[in-house]
Amino acid sequence: MQELISLFVKSIFVDNMVFAYFLGMCSYLAVSKNVKTAIGLGAAVIFVLGVTLPVNYLLNTYVLTPAALAWLGPDFAGIDLSFLSFIIFIAVIASIVQLVEMVVEKYSPSLYASLGIFLPLIAVNCAILGGSLFMQERGYETLAEATTFALGSGFGWFLAIVALAAIREKLSYSNVPAPLRGLGITFIVVGLMGIAFMSFMGIKL
Q1: What pTM, to 2 d.p., does this model score?
Q2: 46-100 pLDDT, tens per residue?
């Protein structure tokens, strides 16, 4: 249990998808203009990561890795389907994103309208695919570890976009120099937030 808590905290602060690996920056910058929209997209990312990464873990463990099909019989032990990892991971992600898009459109049309094209673009959000690839590279041993990593990564992305959205709302009322208004001051703020999150790298978990 302690290992799972450490993995969860590390995924949020130390291995933050935005500030440690710069993943998902396109939607992170585009949808962080107000807090309500940022919360909606952040919650969608948490849900998509929390569902797709465990599914991809099971597929990777029992189908894609070398000799993973041994459970079907000795004749399948020599089959290596690891070359299909990318396309299968993306197919799972696209399916879950389509489900999320339909649910949001049905139950929150205003949020669906404010998110615009960036909601279906979660399917190609590099933070989502990056989570599955990190899971594969790091070789998590159990489904619980993979799920904890997924939820921690999603919550870390949620925290980053909501924090930036709150700051950008305050900046809209601030006297920002004309050359820095818009994305200029946003890039400066994101850089400062990244430096702030670097302080968590000294934590030993």
Answers
A1: 0.88
A2: 989 999 999 999 999 999 888 888 888 888 878 888 889 999 999 999 998 888 8
Nearest CA among 201, 202, 151, 194 for reference residue 14: 201
Contact 12, 159 (CB under 8 A): yes
Question: Model confidence over 131-164: pLDDT tens digits?
Answer: 999 999 998 989 999 999 999 999 999 999 999 9
DSSP per-residue codes, 26-83: HHHHHS-SSHHHHHHHHHHHHHHHHHHHHHHHHHIIIIISTTGGGGG-GGGTT---GG
Which run of H or of E encompasses 145?
helix 143-171
**Is residue 26 packed enough to be buried (19+ CB in 10 Å), middle (13-18) or exposed (0-12)?**
middle
Residue 193: DSSP 8-state: H
- Check: CB of residue 130 under 8 Å from CB of residue 18: no
pLDDT of 205 strictly over 70: no
